[in-house]
Amino acid sequence: MDFQELFIFQDVELFVYIIGVTIVAFILYFWVNIRVSSYKEGRVSRIKGLVITDPETLSPMPTEIFTAKETKHQERKIIKGVRSRFTVIQRAFLYFVAIIWAFAVTMPFIGNVPSTMLSVIVATTTVIVGIAAKPFVENLICGIVISFSSQIRVGDTLIIDKQYGTVEDISITHTKIKTWDWKRYVIPNSRMLTKEFTNLNLDDSRLWSYLEFCVAFDSDMELVRDIAIEVSSQSEYATSSEDPQFWVMRMEKESIVCWIAAWAETPAEAWNLKSDMAIRLSKSLQEHNISTHLSKVDLCSRHDCAF
Fold this sequence. Notes:
Low-confidence stretches: 296-307
Radius of gyration: 31 Å
Mean pLDDT: 79
């Protein structure tokens, strides 16, 4: 094989290599794009289902402030946010594939580039990405991880950093939580990914809503139990799937500590159920003359009192 034939053979081999890399890049991109699109539509369908069954999906507690028009606007806003987020992920993956493809295509020619110039290019790229773009890239990667995670989704109710609220939006760089008083708690995704939180409707939206209260030692505990179960059952926020449960938790110096717990359909309903149980229970205990603590404390000892 002479020099000309060798040169032609190398050109054909290089051409086949470039075509092969390009085909692999296209297949990889379209496969991931289809999977992301399917995932995106699944999340959109979930949100539509939540809004239909519970129009107050994005409210940490029940409210009637939204009109039907405003509720529809909120639904469109949420869905737009979800679609925009996954669209950005698709575009980011396209850029990633393009960069990898460009790197793979130029690999055969890297040997022809002077080592000094190559070192300058690598050093410059490292400085730009490692320093200037580090926060954005870090939040971007964490945002992608959160987007495909089932541990936190738009519409989930969380307790995080002593804040109680509902996830209103997950963008590529930040997660926005609407707290119970309708403030917005915004957390960078790089921090959100490492935080510990309680997801109140991760696998099931139903919750035990419990209330702790105290009664005096001379109280009729069977009557206390019947009253607590009755008032909890009568609450409009309690479900009828199971009767409320009553427990005596402990005995302290001046009172007996009790718990009453009932099921609520959502975290928002559980919030109001606890308050409603407290109002009804305090009223009923007063009507039956049941004291919530020692009504009389004898400060004198048996030996020192003169009366």
